[in-house]
Amino acid sequence: MVASQDDTSIETTNDIRLDSDTLLLVRGLKTNFYTYEGVVKALDNVQFELKRGDTLAIVGETGCGKSVTAKSILRLVDSPGRIEEGQILFQDVNEEGENVIIDLLQSTEDEMRKIRGNKIAIVFQDPATYPNPVFRIGDQIAEVIALHQDLSRDVLEMKIARLEDALRTNPDAENVEEITTRIEEYKSQLDSPPPPTDKEKKEAAKKRTVETLKLVRMPSAEQTINQYPHELSGGMRQRALIAMALSCNPRILIADEATTALDVTVQAQVLKLLNVLKTELDASIIIITHDLGVVAETCTRVAVMYAGVVVEYTNTDELFSDPIHPYTSGLLRAIPKITEKVEHLLQITGTVPNLIHPPSGCRFHPRCEFATEICAQQRPPREEIKPAHWIECHHPQGSMKGRKR
Amino acid sequence: MTKMDTKQYSEEIEETSSSIKYFVYFILVLGFINVIAGFVNIIDALLLYDIGTINEIGLMGNIATGSIAAIVIGILLLPIGLGVRDLENWAFPWVLYANLLAILLFLVNGGFIVYIGLFNLFAIILLMTPQIRAFWWKLYMEDMGPRAKETRYTLYLIRKSPLVVAGIIIIAVYICLAIFAPYITPYGPTEREWYNFLQAPSPQHIWGTDQNGGDVFSMVIWATQVDLKIAISVVAVALVVGAFIGAAAGYFGGAVDEIVMRITDVFFAFPGLILAMAIVSALGARNLDNISIALMLVWWPTYARLVRGQVLIEREKLYVEAARSVGASDMRILAFHILPNTIQPVIVQATLDMGGVLLTAAGLSFIGFGAEAGSAEWGLMIAQGQNHFAQYWVTLFPGLAILFCALSFNLVGDGVRDILDPKLRRR
Amino acid sequence: MALISPRTIDLKTGHAQLALQKHIAGCARAIRRVIWHMRLRDYVIRRLLLAIPVVIGVLAITFVLAYVMGDPVGIYTQERTSPEAVEAIRRAHGLDRPLYEQFFFYLRDLASGDWGYSVSARLPVTQVIATRLPATIELSLFAIVFAIALGIPLGILSATKKDRWPDHVTRVVALAGVSMPIFWFALMLKYVFFFQFYMAGLPALPEGGRYTFTVLPYTPITGFLLIDSIITLNPVLFMDGLVHLILPGFALGYLTLAIITRMMRSSMLEVLKEDYITLARSKGLRERVVIYRHALRNAMIPTVTVIGLAFGGLMSGAVLTETIFSWPGLGRWSTRAILNSDIPSINAFTLLVAFIFVGANLVVDLVYGALDPRIRYG
What we know:
The structure holds three protein chains of three kinds. By secondary structure, chain A is α/β, with parallel strands linked by helices. Helices cover 37% and strands 21% of the residues of chain A. In chain A, the strands form two sheets. Chain A has an eight-stranded mixed beta sheet, sandwiched between helices. In chain A, strands 2-1-4-5 form a four-stranded antiparallel beta sheet, covered by helices on one side. Chain B is mostly helical. Chain B has two domains: 3-152, no CATH class; 161-425, MetI-like fold, CATH 1.10.3720. Chain B is 80% helix and 0% strand. Chain B has helices at residues 3-12, 17-50, 56-85, 91-109, 113-128, 130-160, 162-184, 216-252, 254-268, 272-283, 288-315, 318-325, 330-367, 378-385, 393-420, 422-425. In chain B, helix 9 crosses helix 11 (288-315), helix 10 (272-283) packs across helix 13 and helix 13 (330-367) runs parallel beside helix 14. Chain B is globular. The interface between B and C is large, with 47 and 53 residues.
């Protein structure tokens, strides 16, 4: 049980050392929306981390701030929203192979642009509205590749392959010697390739686009790159969006309800695909969902959000076997089980609170059956109640039931 | 609260039930009076036409706004009165609506029927007395709760947007100028000091005089009456006719829709001013009435299209399905369920079109279609001043008058459109 | 066997230039192009078919208007012409036939190029149109090019700098544009840039006309003054024509400019809220690329429609502007015709303008199809 003072002391220091396998650490994230009715405190002190190779799920009801968290990580929150405070520490590997820690909220817009789509990529919810309707799928993917990737070596390899191919099919061409010397020349340049022209770059990006589309198991990828979004089905469009996100081998892939708009069968396929790709590309994934089934199937760690707060953060197995926060246990109880026949589906009474005037203290207390006076007065501190199991609650349940603070 | 609740509620205040009885009598008698007044108004209008005070258009307008309105509203008051007797929820607000509409139309019509309107006003006053109000006000407010909240929010947004407020103020100023023109102008609309032509602005003529010695300031203000009347009448008629045709096309669909849309296509194939020019030429005489008729013919397709589009959207919505499933007739669904929900974009379009009609009418009158030479009308004044370069005031002030008038309508229309746009609304 | 004999390998493309291969590749390219054109052609044909009922309606309306405008016999008769003679004239011109037959004659006359005789210009209508149409087109094109070239950047600027001073300035300019009576604006321009400049001894812009006809000789070849002056290599005439275009072009284009700016602003604002813009930003693209590549093309779609509709306003405005600037185009002719009750001219002018407007909207539809792939294949 690490005491909570430890947490607050870390928050004040500026030079932080992360575990070498921690990829992303979100701390004290606060995002507000300034609307006509008042300030919507969409995120309040959100805290979680993502380890290398993990699949982290962020679950919660509609309007609890999951998507805002995702957009905050990439600093894509549109006005009237604003990220007020917090740290989003991203551990990157620089060109020398050293680990560097970047605070995404402190970096400049230029630095952010180099990270978006390149190091951290996001797949959005609705495949119908997210691809740009007036550009071909291939062009939209190639755009990211040409933007972030160094394609000079690709271009050179492409040239060599092309000439070798021509030689092989036409061994009796008139200028064989000239061609072979040219191939030698190109091969000697491979270590320090010359900058390619725009046209060559485009061609190389197109080649990579096809490769990426094949990676996401897009059938007939060569034809797809010439199609417009409206000519593809929802599942195919989602695949194209995933390909777009994966095209630069990002270190973190955020899937913001990426499967919600799809049919159940397609949903399963896409989820399976994401997990396969994770191992293939050595990426870490954050899956944002309201579907606990998805969480159980695909994720290793879970952060449960309620009204802009991460109330519980632990391993998936642990969460399902021993939910400690009353909200989480309520959620799990609300899932109907196929083996039991019940009269009424269990539910958590009440609704998600209005975040302009969030409940004082613990934001869950008006709906909580264990709430006492302290819940209304004081926000519970974030504590590690069991090893690798963090909650924010005054009255933990489950195996920690009855524990006095 | 349901109807049953109302009845129980009313039993508690039994002592007021006699007042409702007299109120019902009054409404029924009022309906009778209105019908009679409508018929008398027809005779009156025919007499006026006979002695030549008004022409055919005036006759038709008189009958439409006065007689038909009075008769229709009078007949409507019968079921409304019976509804009030049975303490139906819907009947009470309809007493208000019907009588307000009647008063408005009577005022537009003018003549003796305005005094009949006093009876209607009395009905509204009775409706608002505490005894009668106890029966409906609370329920009505509950019913209107969400809508009232929306309206309050809209008003708040309007107040908050300075451009819209400015537009409304300018429009109000123009309307005041039109109404009070006789009291604020030093000269009449056709008054001339022929010996004082093309005088520079001076204390006697603050905006100078034109080539005939007319006072520019007075003429610009007198012209407000003429031009606003054209703009309002054109937009009102085009709106009503267009909305009716468009609603029918959208609701019934099929061949009706196809024919109406092809006809509007043809009208849209002509630039507005040029079609109006051709129509005025065809009508023969060049005067402001013909300009109005031509512009009405040019403008109705805009509203037909707009309303049709809105109706097509609304028709598919669930509440229409719900209304149909409880057996509401086509006319009822269209009039009570669909049209009220299409009104917002139509209002915005009408506001924006006021400016457009104003500019087109002035353009027509500039070319020489307008009123007879020398009368006070902005476009004509500019046309007559166009050769007097050294005397800029002859053209400058009427032009500014048009500019600000059109600008104010555009400001209001634009701002309100942004405010009502659901995509931009909550920010 | 020239087709399969070896050639050289191209160093750049790596294509072995076998004639056969080249031939096949060429064929494939041609086929692909044909397929694309076929899809586009279907779209074009569909648009053209949709225009047919409109054209018929336009003809019907002009016919009815001409019919209502007055008995055409009036032109050929005098007060003392006997009723029998009037009747004879009527019969000779087919005016005693039923209306639908007269409509048929009307169409036949139009198709055979007999558009009547313009009393006001003392020339056949077709001849008047031939001499005056180029002037109007030149003026309208100048105005619309000016309006598009300035309106679209202004709209983008206004949308991207929303609620900051460039936005406020642009909105005021645009709002004034749609609220300004075009004829008054033209007069004021003339007053300032011709009269006041002239009085102040500054280089004033010309008062009206297409060129300084008192000094410069000009014989129309194509009728377009600027083109003719280039053909005849006459820089003095070219500059003179251009200077004459400035005031009327600006007066005429301002309204269109305002309409385009407003539409561009609002559609840009709407597009910038779309999901695909968020996606483009999440790719790490520069804001400039997001706006000019991803947003602009989408925002252009409604703007292009409005440009088509604004063309109608342009034709209306041409009537007023040409009158004020003594521009020898169709508009000025039409006002003169109206004041002289010259029915064939009014009728021909109305018809012609409607045709131009319909044609302009067809062009707009095609551009629309090119911009929006969803429409093209729909």
